[in-house]
Amino acid sequence: MASAGTSHFLVPWPYDAIVPERLPGRARTWTHLSGAAELAVAAAIACPRTRRKGALAAAALFAAVFPANVKMARDWRHRPLPLRAVVYGRLPVQAPLIGWALLVAYGAGKDTGKDNGVSER
């Protein structure tokens, strides 16, 4: 997530292209906001004290960016088959990513013996 978040700032134009037109404002603003969110979520997951909340935020973020993946698949429907396969293949990957994030959140709650994500270490 940290690498993806960083790439939103270093190479923003591919992300700009998949921002749904319905969103208000400039695509670049949404690219930067989603990159910052990915960086924040990555940092929260890395820290045991905030891992549970970070993982729950990751699940929400994976769900929130799904419309951009759908837009990309729709925009690329006339591209060569190998490119279409990549973007179409990304669509079902969101579900396991959300599942992974929820498992991390569940595990973080179990690690502490509490369900609030605060580590006693």
Automatic annotation (TrEMBL):
<protein>
    <submittedName>
        <fullName>DoxX family protein</fullName>
    </submittedName>
</protein>
